[in-house]
């Protein structure tokens, strides 16, 4: 059994502990008993706590040697929001797991059109959408108060913009709607079809986006035009200003060929007119 012995040179006592019960105390004076008992009891409780402290059980090793399996690999399938006409959707094949238009795999689509008919299902609404190019079946299954409010917009003759995914039902292409909104400004119709054309041409590489270099070139041309006109306005007289002087004034900023071409362009656009030979003057 564990025994604790404590020495004090001033009190000359010995105290023996057996578990939590005081067995024998030899004191020179009874007055030292209370503080001594308090001190030793606290120390014993700390010591017993350390002895009795249970070790945490070790986690059993799994088949992965203690490592938690990693989460499933992320899906790297390209995601996009493609604006389409209904006729484009109806031209899709129905026997393929994925759908492609203009060499681009469809993920999420956006179509717009008038609601021609509706039919209430057990937990949603099935309706026919017509954008003027074709008609297509669409289904909307609301889940929550917000989507219940959206479902109330599915009424005949309402013009809706819907976002969803392509589905094949009974051998026919349809749209499973995840979001819809009512369009009251019919300028959106023109915007929608312009967006359809723009995306179609871009995916077919028939419409290129303007590069940074092209933008910088356009900016440089605009600045060159302003500088040439400003050079004429600030330095011309009744006889105009010779083109060689303009080239010399701007030689530290532009190439000579660019300046001369800009002067000729300004002449063709009637910003400048000839006074005498190569001397020109601004119209204003």
TrEMBL record:
One MF annotation (Gene Ontology) recorded for this entry: DNA binding
Residue ranges of the TM segments: none
Gene3D superfamilies: Nucleic acid-binding proteins, Winged helix-like DNA-binding domain superfamily/Winged helix DNA-binding domain
Domain OB: 110-182
Cellular component annotations (GO), alphabetically ordered: nucleus
InterPro entries named among the record's database cross-references: NA-bd_OB-fold, NA-bd_OB_tRNA, RFA2-like, WH-like_DNA-bd_sf
Subcellular location: Nucleus
Keyword terms: DNA-binding, Nucleus
Keyword Ribosomal protein appears in the UniProt entry: no
PANTHER family assigned to the protein according to its UniProt record, in alphabetical order: REPLICATION PROTEIN A-RELATED (PTHR13989), REPLICATION PROTEIN A2 (PTHR13989:SF16)
Official protein name in the record: OB domain-containing protein
Organism, scientific name: Vavraia culicis (isolate floridensis) (Microsporidian parasite)
